[in-house]
Amino acid sequence: MNRVLVTGCPRSGTTFVGSVLASAPRVAYLHEPLNPDCGLPSASHRFADLADPSSAAVADEMLELFELRGRLRGNVYPTDTAIVRLGKRLVAGRGPLQLAKARALPRREHVVVKDPFAMRSIEWFEAQGCTVIVMVRHPAAVVASMRRLGWKAGTTMRRFAAEGLLDDVELDWVDQLDADLDGVALFWRMNYRAALAGLGDGRLVVHELMSARPSEAIAELRAATGIPWSDRSERRLRRLTSGDVAAADPAGRTQQFRRASADILGSTISTLTADELDRIWAIAGDIASRWYRPDGLT
């Protein structure tokens, strides 16, 4: 089967792009197999490098999963609503459900793996014949989005420092982390530094540019990956990215797809103060300046 990996820093649009591409005919969709909470049985380390010998068991399971063999675990989170908990008890969660749907397809010619936990394994996926799509989103937007959900990254960054995964700039910042946004901004920097170093023939997609012209951007990705299209997929894409729904919902769900996508960047960054934007840019700006200025696109 034709293989595609959609990855990127969490909160960068990987779920949206992966699910839209997978809405086409004859496409199997695999949801976060490297997520230690709900992925492959051997996945126990966040952001593992599958090329590392210590990850050999996970790499072997991933190779089986490409052929829709093996299994994915389910998981119930404390923030899940009662309805979501009931659904997960019935179908074990999104990963197992998507795997079951993939196996039920009468014809399977393509497989799309959506996984932000694959950022350190880009070279490994390319070596397995995957076309890699890396989503990038403004670091301030990622910080604001993670803050909305109460997600923090300071502890993760300190663990990465202990494992020798940070460069000198990141090590300097680890010793200065004094706010929730610091850890997320540093996490963003590390992710895209690693992605730029590992990305070979893959494609990097700027979230905000895709949001401004979603149909054209998805069409370009379809052409790059060889994934087919359909009128149904186009109708779904237009339904999710247009209309009167607000671009940002501070009290909303983890994923909020049905919204006026062109407004996402401004509405998200507006939740941060000028001092916070300056702090984020001081940490991540040397990488982010390839695509952004402190308060928007270049």
From TrEMBL:
<dbReference type="Pfam" id="PF13469">
    <property type="entry name" value="Sulfotransfer_3"/>
</dbReference>
<protein>
    <submittedName>
        <fullName>Sulfotransferase family protein</fullName>
    </submittedName>
</protein>
<dbReference type="GO" id="GO:0016740">
    <property type="term" value="F:transferase activity"/>
</dbReference>
<keyword id="KW-0808">Transferase</keyword>
<dbReference type="InterPro" id="IPR027417">
    <property type="entry name" value="P-loop_NTPase"/>
</dbReference>
